[in-house]
Amino acid sequence: MDLSIKNKFETYPKHIAERLNAVRDLIYSVAEQDGISDLTETLKWGEPSYISKIGSAIRFDWKAKNPDQYGIYFNCKTSLIETFKEVHGDTFVYEGNRAIIFQIDQALPAKELAHCISMALRYKKIKHLDLLGA
Predict the structure, then answer these.
(1) Are 129 and 44 in contact (CB under 8 A)?
(2) Which Pfam families match (predicted)?
(3) Which residues have C-beta within 8 Å of that of residue 92, sequence separation ≥ 6?
(4) 64: in domain
(5) How does pLDDT run across 22-68, given as a tens digit for each residue?
(6) What's the domain range around 55?
(7) In a domain, 132, yes or no
């Protein structure tokens, strides 16, 4: 784990860090399944951020002002959230065209979220396809 990411995780309450670590693990798992070996982990705007050379950045964070939820953020200038809404409907709660919001006590819909992460990590290669090739 990147040192800046490790330090960021140490600022989260333990139960939050566990949830966000599950998201991080899912991102790495999807990257491996998709054959993406150039995944970069860094802090962007103070949030854990993940990007591949063929993709669009994925960030996630928990904010003390909304202690019962956390978000996974995508570039709002892409068609990612619009596509997620079309393909996965009300599986997720969306925040505009930039985020998927989860409640802390909510089970992570891993299969559907993995699909969304895959589209983001490959975005530059699939952005021309209808529904991003979903």
Answers:
(1) no
(2) DUF1801
(3) 84, 100, 101, 109, 112, 113, 116
(4) yes
(5) 999 999 999 999 999 999 999 999 999 999 999 999 999 999 999 99
(6) 3-127
(7) no
